[in-house]
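Question (not urgent): is this output format expected?
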Amino acid sequence: MKRLVVLGAGESGVGTAILGKKKGFDVFVSDKGTITDYYKEVLRNFEIEWEEQQHTVSRIINADVVMKSPGIPDKVALVQQLLEKGIHVVSEIEFAFGFTAAQIVGITGSNGKTTTTMLTHYILQQGGLDVNMAGNIGDSFAKQVTEKDAPFYVLELSSFQLDGIKEFAPHIAILTNITPDHLDRYDYKFENYIASKFRIAMNQKEDDYFIYDADDKVIVEYLEKYPIRSKLLPFSLTKRVENGAYLEKNNITITIDNNKIIMPTENLALKGNHNVKNAMAAATVSQLLKIRKTTIRECLENFHGVEHRLENVLKINNVQYINDSKATNVNATFYALDAMKSATVWIVGGVDKGNDYTELFSLVNEKVKAIICLGVDNSKIINAFGNCVDDIVETQSMKEAVKMAYKIAERNENVLLSPACASFDLFKNYEERGRQFKEAVREL
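Got this back:
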């Protein structure tokens, strides 16, 4: 009997443990932190052995395969020890991939992955395909392969998940964009992070597809240097492309093998140029998978987006409060500020992942009237934007930040939570941060 050890008992870890158990592995789950009561109960029900608040090395290095959760860096001594012993260390995505025959749409990128994943899944589902959605969203891929495997999956994939693949190959891969993010995990080298994102295409073959942003210099230059095997389908807001998607006179045109679909951007439910790109990527997949054009058009007109991503919360005294808690990096915040049409009070801060704020200067000068810092250490934000705005205020809780914003914002202005940082200093995750923001706004 092969031994599977799972490091980390979150959604992906427990999903992998269940799949391993069902496939006849001897399974052991080890978590350095505490395991939630819910997951303990699940592990007990499946009679899977587990430990918490420690890693017992002797019970781990006798594994045939180790699945480590995306949150554990490769540099950790235990992982290094496993690799030195020649033990396969994989991500949940890689492990589950071995047990499904499904066609996979894999979506990665620094920003836009969640929206593109949800939109793609929505169109394929409305088009009548039996399709599951997993990865960074909802139930884990492994759990779905175990319980309700489907012929199609749309997977949102982070660079950490891609770092742990060996055989994984999506039939259709989407790379939305690449901007510096998570550099703390990549020795602060942007090129390491770029290579990590491109792992999504490393096992693709000639009859697979790679959909990418042709306006993204980083992607285009990498493709020139390191060509990939799959068929390229670019999308662009600035240039015409023969196969793929482009924007011309406010119309999106998508062409695949002389088969065209044209759609006016004013009909898109999601506003902003970044969402035009997300729509192009999702529609290109849908056309590849032979969804009817009318279905694609209707879905793009009806899909209203993702919680915590430029989500309008409430208007109070003619001030619009906007929750963009999902903006955990500078580029995501760039899109948010770019979408603001009037003066904005900007709530920013959290755990900095090696951010370079210079690309925000012109937008902040143009649109931001005051900055409210929400983090344990705000010095970098204060130093970066001290010359751009007159008002910079430090706060230590969401309630305090929202009350402060309420005092500063005037009629027809916006209050935007778009932190450009991870949330772990004051919140469990970006969802909790966003929910607290919405609660604080409703209590005003």
